[in-house]
Structure formats: structure tokens, C-alpha cells
Amino acid sequence: EQAGKRYWYDDRIPQAEALALLQYFSTMVDDPVPSLYAVPGAKGYYVVSSYDTQFADTDNGRRLYLVRKGPGGYEVIDRTKGAGDSYVLKPVFFLGRGKTLILAEIGTEYCWGLLVYEIRGKRLFFLGGLDATVEGEFDAADPTPFAAVKYANGRWRVEFSHDLVLDAGGLKEQTIERTGKQPIVFEHDGKRFTPKAGTYTSSGPSRSR
């Protein structure tokens, strides 16, 4: 907390750097609790999860900002669309083959699933949604602690080492289970991530919420 303003930053960012980034960001966005993340393997690049003061009916809510620190200071070089009514937009970074993928949890009192982005140079590219959560103690929870990411044959795939809940809180909510000890695999089809047939079995509706 600084001068009455709360914020969160990951432990890869020195506190003095986090305070400087917060000061820069506060001049643009009025967010009670922004979250600051260092981009792994990319010195001087940060992702900030925050709101946009330019509210629009079709593009609102918490979003990710890609920020670069250069000789002249900080600069927002890209931003995603807003996540609508979601209270949460928490990015987790996965690196491999010179690429960086972000799985970002969205939700309110419970997890709704993930939004997936790829950092390509100075851009944040949206790859679509990934409808997966895990059964938490009280409600659907973030599945990223059980995720692994691979890039092969020009496609991303996300593997989960845990049974999953799909469409959490929705009319089609259901649990899918791993086949033996093999992970449940989601593959990108060019628009979104969908579960790969043969890597899971359906056990029917999840518990009611």
C-alpha cells in the first residue's frame, strides 16, 4: 500500500520498481487494486491487470496491459479487451520454444474459466477462451496450478493433471475426468481451446451451486 492506494505485485519485481510502475499507471487508470506482473524472460516488460477509465458498453471491465520500460520511462504498448463482469483477471505465464502464453483466470465469487493470450513481440494476441475449472472447497476454482502448456506442429495445447468442471455455474455444468493418469488435453483450433476426445471421460453434472 502506498499513500492510501492498495496494489499487488509479483515477487519478481523489486519493490522500488513496482512503486514506480504503479505511479505511472495511476496517471492513466483509476483502479483501487491494480496487479503488476513481470513478463518472464523479457526484461523491462510487464503485464498489469487493471480497469480502463474509457468505459464502453461493448468493451469494459478488467483487462491486461502490456507495459515496456525504456530510456524515457514506462509505456503501454498494447492492451486486451475488457473481461466484462469478471472481478478477476489473473495471468499465469508459460514459456517454451521462444514463446510466451498467458492463461488468465476470470470469475467472481467462483472461477468461470480462462482467457488465453500469447505475447508476440509488442502485442497481446487473444487466442480465445478455455472452459475449465477445478472443484474447489466451496465453488469452482482456478485450474492453472494443474496446467502444463506445449507448442507443437504450429498449435498450442494445454494439459491438466486434474479432473475438471466445464461451464461452471452454467446450465451445462459437468465434470470430466482423466483417463487413468493421463492429462486432459485442450487443443487450440484456431479460435478457441476445446477438450481433445479420448483424453477424458464424462461423469455427468457437477454438484449444484
Tell me what the structure shows.
It is a single chain. By secondary structure, the chain is mostly beta strands. The protein has 1 helix and 18 strands. The strands form 5 sheets. A 5-stranded mixed sheet has the order 1-2-3-4-5, with helices on one face. A 4-stranded antiparallel sheet has the order 6-7-8-9, with no helix packed on it.
What attributes does this structure have?
single chain, mainly beta, 4-stranded antiparallel sheet, 47% strand, globular
Quick recap of the structure?
The protein has 209 residues and is mostly beta strands. The chain has one helix at residues 15-26; strands at residues 8-9, 35-38, 45-50, 63-70, 73-79, 88-96, 99-107, 111-120, 123-130, 134-135, 140-141, 147-152, 155-160, 164-166, 174-178, 184-188, 193-195, 200-202.
